[in-house]
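Dear support,

I submitted the protein below through the web form. The confirmation email said the job was done, but the results page showed an empty box. After a refresh the structure appeared. I'm attaching both so you can tell me whether what I see now is the final result or a partial one.
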Amino acid sequence: MTAVTLKGISKQFGRVSGVSGVNVEIGSGEFFTLLGPSGCGKTTTLRMIAGFYYPSEGRILFGEQDVTSLPPNKRNTGMVFQNYALFPHMTVFENIAFGLQTRKEPKVIIRDKVERALAQVHLETYGTRRIDQLSGGQQQRVALARALVIQPDLLLLDEPLSNLDAKLREETRYEIKRLQLELGVTTLYVTHDQAEAMSMSDRIMVMNGGTVQQIGTPQEIYNEPVNRFVSTFIGETNLWEGTVERIEGDDVYVRVSSAIVLLASATRKSPSCQLQVGAKLAATFRPESVQEVGTPQYDQAGAGSLVTGFIQVSEFTGISTQYLTFADSLPLRAMFVGVNHLLRERGDKVSFCIPKDSVYLLE
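What the results page shows now:
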């Protein structure tokens, strides 16, 4: 296990900036995810940590060791690529053993380590199989075993589940997290999938346009986004533009339309959001926080802003029921978990409550 520190890391590709000014400290044994849309710089950052790219500016430290100019084979990192990068002419055993063989370890040691790695990923009987005889999920586990068998100080995974179907992706992410916890290896994980990041990570670094937007726990990223990009990129949300109409103690009243004044708490805001009468800002709240007035789940004590609208889209997913409603021309998404919720139909008139403490104010 090792800690990783990035100090002012930037990467230029000619005149194009791939990554700019990344500063972060990743703790020993931490599962740390780089999350963002395609082209945001997350894979470039991972490749600089692996040594495949050298930064144009800044330093990379593993523990106290400066590895900025160290070649990849000197960093003791294990990497799982998006396309797995397995050798098709080798068996499963030979693929996993490759890194140990290049280190010239004794054959007896290699066999013992490979067999243990196969057991870790539940492929004990697959050692003699060819790669083309494996499913996508099995190939992914071979790639993971090959990365782990060298006992790396750092495990790097670049969108390793993107080629798997939804069900297998869910199963495999639990397997990766299980192994990471079991081995205690510091892990950096690149993905554009918010669900993967939220369910697996100790902390997440959200990136966009080559820069870091926010670093925090999944709970912090989801509940306290620092800007509009993070708010809308992480999960479903409602985001309404408005103007502060008045402030009464902890209560902030935001005019979001001619008919709707949204009640918010002065304590629920991003650090850059300035609260003063007349200030323009954005109010965001999650669909699952919305309550339907008149239902058993409705909590009058936690009431905030009451709005009325007509159902435009109604979706039953099994786990939840989701609605798209327009309240005074503002799109309002609501989600209700559980099978006992009374399903509303398109065109139904509904009244919703947006609890005060569920509203988060952004600059």
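Response: this is the final, complete result; the empty box was a page-load delay. The chain has eight helices and 20 strands.
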